[in-house]
Design brief:
The chain is mostly helical. It has helices at residues 2-6, 12-31, 34-41, 45-72, 79-95, 101-114, 117-143, 153-174, 177-194, 197-224, 231-245, 256-267, 272-289, 292-307. Helix 3 (34-41) crosses helix 13, helix 10 crosses helix 13 and helix 11 (231-245) packs antiparallel against helix 12. The chain starts with a helix and ends in a 10-residue tail after the last helix.
């Protein structure tokens, strides 16, 4: 951790990109390029239509979650604005390294409108953290009860070990004075949301819809790639892969997702190559599904040019 802090901030994005590319290269070295090509060729117009529909459901639920959190911080957010901005955010997260640039842009735009960039940044951070927490809890709730006879039992044991490690880390952090100060600060940041039970229920429900829609997209990719597994097995593996996709070390989503998909499918007895093929199809489908966000960016650019006098025969000085 100390070594990471010594790295100049300007170099950190490049290091994340290099790490993501290294993971992809390592995955290719293990399984070859065949599974990647298999994933690409499995995509059809029908799978794209389903992915776009599922992305619309997930985006609407996420935008609703953002509105609820923003309200808790005293920031108004219209439904149309939230939906458009969330599509734009997802598109930026997909095409730019790190997976967080879109969220930063979303917070900045909302903050500029209310002249409270700090509150908007807290709202966006709280909304993302809430979604991740629900995803983790949902993943553990589904994986841990798996019986010993299930082919997915290794994934359950690994998930339990990771959860136990996370609890131990939090405990160690809380045992220090500085750690307790950090936890208190985070609690104060989230307090506007945590003190509203109805809001918490709504946020949890919206987050479950988001995770379910993304997992369903993964299942669609798996079925399209011809994986010999049931939709229920694919859905369980999807939860593991979605967790890896959330790591901020990726290039357009590529990186740990493919490596974890290969490992998870191998542990489940489905083959590492099948995991990479499904992950590849899933990655392409998710990018295509958030393309409406690019239209939102173009519309923003058009409005900026128009306001600056470029459109309509006027030109700014």
């Amino acid at each position: 951790m100390a070594a990471l802090k010594r790295i100049p901030p300007r170099l950190r994005p490049a290091l994340r990109i290099a790490a993501a590319l290294a993971v992809v290269a390592g995955t290719v070295a293990v399984v070859g390029v065949g599974p990647f090509l298999r994933g690409l060729t499995s995509i059809s117009p029908a799978t794209i239509l389903v992915a776009v529909a599922l992305a619309a459901v997930a985006t609407a639920a996420a935008a609703w979650r953002w509105r609820i959190v923003s309200t808790g911080f005293g920031l108004t957010l219209g439904w149309s604005e939230a939906l458009t901005s969330y599509y734009r955010s997802q598109f930026l997260n997909m095409v730019l390294p790190g997976g967080v640039v879109g969220d930063v842009h979303r917070a900045y735009v909302q903050g500029q409108q209310h002249e409270r960039v700090d509150l908007a940044a807290r709202a966006v951070a709280a909304e993302r953290v809430a979604g991740q927490l629900v995803q983790i809890v949902l993943t553990l709730a589904i994986l841990l009860p798996l019986g010993l006879a299930s082919p997915l039992t290794p994934l359950a044991w690994i998930s339990g070990a990771i959860a136990g490690l996370a609890v131990a880390v939090v405990g160690l952090v809380a045992a220090t004075g500085r750690g307790r100060a950090v936890l208190r600060r985070e609690y104060r940041m989230l307090r506007p949301v945590l003190v509203r039970p109805i809001a918490l229920i709504a946020i949890a429900a919206a987050s479950v819809v988001v995770v379910a829609a993304h997992a369903a997209t993964f299942v669609v990719a798996g079925l399209a790639a011809g994986v010999h597994a049931g939709a229920d097995e694919l859905a369980v593996v999807a939860l593991i892969v979605l967790g890896a996709a959330a790591l901020p070390v990726n290039v357009g989503g590529w990186g740990p997702r493919e490596a974890v998909a290969a490992s998870a499918f191998a542990l489940a007895g489905l083959g590492a190559g099948a995991g990479v093929a499904v992950s590849t199809a899933f990655g392409v489908l998710t990018v295509v599904a958030v393309l409406p966000g690019s239209f939102a960016l173009l519309a923003d650019r058009f409005r900026t040019l128009s306001a600056g006098g470029i459109i309509g025969g006027r030109r700014s000085a």
